[in-house]
Amino acid sequence: MSTAGKRIPVTEERWKELNELKSAGETYDELLERLIQEHNRRHLADVARGVREADEEDLTQFDEL
Protein backbone atom coordinates (compact mmCIF):
# COMPACT_ATOMS: atom_id res chain seq x y z
CA MET A 1 0.00 0.00 0.00
CA SER A 2 1.27 3.43 -0.87
CA THR A 3 2.03 5.81 1.95
CA ALA A 4 0.83 8.71 -0.21
CA GLY A 5 -2.55 9.86 0.94
CA LYS A 6 -5.52 11.61 -0.52
CA ARG A 7 -7.24 14.53 1.09
CA ILE A 8 -10.98 14.32 1.52
CA PRO A 9 -12.65 17.58 2.50
CA VAL A 10 -15.21 17.19 5.28
CA THR A 11 -17.14 19.63 7.42
CA GLU A 12 -16.13 20.18 11.03
CA GLU A 13 -19.32 18.37 12.11
CA ARG A 14 -18.50 15.31 9.97
CA TRP A 15 -14.90 15.31 11.26
CA LYS A 16 -16.18 15.19 14.85
CA GLU A 17 -18.59 12.35 14.00
CA LEU A 18 -15.81 10.36 12.33
CA ASN A 19 -13.54 10.97 15.29
CA GLU A 20 -16.22 9.61 17.65
CA LEU A 21 -16.50 6.44 15.53
CA LYS A 22 -12.74 5.88 15.45
CA SER A 23 -11.29 3.49 18.00
CA ALA A 24 -8.13 4.31 19.93
CA GLY A 25 -5.12 3.54 17.76
CA GLU A 26 -7.27 3.11 14.64
CA THR A 27 -6.24 5.12 11.59
CA TYR A 28 -8.79 6.98 9.52
CA ASP A 29 -7.98 4.60 6.66
CA GLU A 30 -8.85 1.65 8.91
CA LEU A 31 -12.01 3.42 10.09
CA LEU A 32 -13.14 4.01 6.50
CA GLU A 33 -12.37 0.39 5.61
CA ARG A 34 -14.47 -0.77 8.57
CA LEU A 35 -17.36 1.54 7.64
CA ILE A 36 -17.27 0.32 4.03
CA GLN A 37 -17.29 -3.32 5.18
CA GLU A 38 -20.25 -2.63 7.48
CA HIS A 39 -22.08 -0.92 4.63
CA ASN A 40 -21.42 -3.84 2.27
CA ARG A 41 -22.61 -6.38 4.86
CA ARG A 42 -25.78 -4.37 5.50
CA HIS A 43 -26.43 -4.10 1.76
CA LEU A 44 -25.96 -7.86 1.29
CA ALA A 45 -28.33 -8.53 4.20
CA ASP A 46 -30.91 -6.20 2.63
CA VAL A 47 -30.63 -8.02 -0.71
CA ALA A 48 -30.96 -11.41 0.99
CA ARG A 49 -33.98 -10.19 2.95
CA GLY A 50 -35.54 -8.94 -0.29
CA VAL A 51 -35.08 -12.34 -1.90
CA ARG A 52 -36.58 -14.13 1.11
CA GLU A 53 -39.56 -11.81 1.12
CA ALA A 54 -40.11 -11.84 -2.65
CA ASP A 55 -43.06 -13.70 -4.05
CA GLU A 56 -41.97 -16.98 -5.58
CA GLU A 57 -43.40 -15.92 -8.94
CA ASP A 58 -41.04 -12.90 -8.94
CA LEU A 59 -37.99 -15.15 -8.70
CA THR A 60 -36.25 -16.93 -11.57
CA GLN A 61 -35.84 -20.67 -11.22
CA PHE A 62 -32.27 -21.98 -11.62
CA ASP A 63 -33.30 -24.34 -14.41
CA GLU A 64 -34.57 -21.30 -16.36
CA LEU A 65 -31.18 -19.60 -16.33
Describe the overall structure.
The structure is a single chain. This protein is mainly α and 65 residues long. 55% of the residues lie in helices and 0% in strands. The protein is built from two helices and no strands. The longest helix has 26 residues. The chain starts with 11 loop residues before the first helix and ends in a 12-residue tail after the last helix.
Short key terms for the protein model shown above:
mainly alpha; elongated; 2 helices; 65 residues
Can you give me a brief rundown of this structure?
The chain is mostly helical and 65 residues long. Helices cover 55% and strands 0% of the residues. The chain has a domain at 27-51.
Low-confidence stretches: none
Question: For the residues shown, what is the average pLDDT?
Answer: 88
Q: Quick one: how many beta strands?
A: 0
- Helix and strand element order: HH
Query: What summary fits the major beta sheet?
Result: none
Number of helical regions? 2
Helical percent range?
55-70%
Strand share of the residues? under 5%
Question: What is the radius of gyration computed over CA atoms, rounded to a whole number of angstroms?
Answer: 19 Å
Multimerization status? single chain
Structural class: mainly alpha
Apparent shape: elongated
Distance between the termini: 40 Å
Set out the fold topology:
Elements lengths: L11 H10 L6 H26 L12
